[in-house]
Amino acid sequence: MVAFDGRLEPARTIRVPELSNPVSISGWDSLLVASEAQGGVTAVRLRGPDSAEATTLDSLVVSPWGAAAPGERVVIVRSPYYLPYYVEFEPAPMIAVTGRTGRPVKPLVPAQVPAIPTLVQIVNAGTAAVDSAGNIYFAPLARDEVRKYSASGALLWTASRGLPFGQVSPSFTYVPGSGPSDTHVNVNYAVALGPPPDGLVYVLSARDTVGGLRLDVLDPATGSLLRTHDDIPAHGTVAVERGGRIRTPDPEELLARARAPEREPFAPAFALPRIEGDTLRLTDVQGKVTLVNFWASWCDPCREEFPHMIALYRELPRADFEIVAISDDVDRPAMLRFAQEFNPPFPVLVGGGRMREAYHYRGLPYSVLLDREGRIVERIFGFGGEAEFHRLHGRILGEIGR
Question: Burial of 18 by CB count in 10 Å (0-12 exposed, 13-18 middle, 19+ buried)?
Fold first, then answer.
């Protein structure tokens, strides 16, 4: 994570190994709260003796959510960035709240159930901001609306900006052999509150159906449209200064000014038994570029990934490259059947179901590429197919040649 000051100059770089696939972030007291595609929330402390220490509030709800955090509670909404198709027989709320511990989760605003239940995720997804009084400003993904709810969940106002593509209700089709398909317009991308004392509501949304963006400024008391900025660049990065001046910095230029952090050691260092019985330690592979892979026999993407890892292992020189595959199975017979099926030429270690707690990943497969000194080059979340392994092959060759 990279923090910028009020002049948009890089101020701090924070390593957060607990983050895997963040989709939104907001401030919360002395914390940053990041929501993840898999549904968890990670809170990072920025001040105090344990600064930059991360706490994982895991499995808040059954579906992916974003989080906005005022005071002592987290306001949870369905993420607009990750929209799987499924039918909820008992729809989870559109907006819910929780506390610092992540439990319990309390419904605040009920879900809208569309005529086609499969679209429940799209209809209820959105982005939110919360003011100091606990009022919630919610911008649905697929409707030309912004809504303000009180801290208790009462609807205070609904605003429509008369966007030119009209109000398109999501529709759904299923083509045999091709799977589900829907038609909807991504209307709202982000909502935020501007600097005090005005606390105006800023909504980043679609200008048209071909990718144009606009920024609308709303009165927080009434929802009335105060002004519109139609010249927002496609990258959609917006900063608001005190006084309301809009800046649209290029995110690549911002990040280019941030100094790359030093590589961190892979931790905790493992010492785990191979399936054959002897122990392999992290120090045993230092001196080689190493891919540490976490997998489980019940993980379908792991099954797809293993042949690519085997091919990668055979393509690269043994003197310079190693793969260590750590199983997180608790079912030893299932683990052994998986290993016997693929018969990998690299070491397979037994994690015994303890690896997720130790290494903070949220899903499998999860891989970490290490340099010759055992420092982290990159983390890889999930399985990205042949293209990912083609890129990884080049990255490993670059490390070998360093």
Answer: buried
The DSSP 8-state label assigned to residue 265 in this structure reads B
pTM for this entry: 0.76
Residue among 255, 289, 268, 262 at smallest CA distance from 371: 289
Give the residue carrying structure tokens 């208790």: 152
Query: Domain-by-domain residue ranges, the chain?
Result: 2-256, 271-400
> What is the maximal distance between C-alpha atoms in the chain?
69
Q: What is the spatial distance between Cα 5 and Cα 13, in angstroms, rounded to a whole number?
A: 12
Task: Give the E-state strand segments of 267-352 in sequence order.
Answer: 271-273, 279-281, 289-295, 321-327, 348-350
In sequence order, what E strands does 207-277 have?
213-218, 225-232, 239-240, 246-247, 271-273
Q: Identify the CATH class of 2-256.
A: mainly beta
Residue tagged 């990041």 (tokens):
34
- Taking only the tens of pLDDT, the chain with its 402 residues reads 888 888 899 988 877 777 777 777 777 666 777 777 666 677 777 776 655 555 554 333 333 345 554 456 778 888 787 777 777 888 888 988 877 666 677 889 999 988 888 888 889 989 888 888 889 999 999 999 999 999 999 999 999 998 887 666 788 777 777 767 778 888 999 999 888 778 899 999 998 877 789 999 999 999 999 999 998 999 999 998 888 889 999 999 998 888 777 888 999 999 999 999 999 999 999 999 999 999 999 999 999 999 999 999 999 999 999 999 999 999 999 999 999 999 999 999 999 999 988 888 878 999 999 999 999 999 998 899 999 999 999 999 999 997
Spell out the long-range contacts of 33-38 with Cβ–Cβ below 8 A and sequence spacing 24 or more.
33/67, 33/68, 33/69, 33/74, 34/1, 34/67, 35/64, 35/65, 35/66, 35/67, 35/76, 35/79, 36/64, 36/362, 37/64, 37/79, 37/81, 37/82, 38/64, 38/362, 38/363
Query: What's 271-400's CATH class?
Result: alpha beta
| Residue 154 CB partners (closer than 8 Å, separation 6+) | none
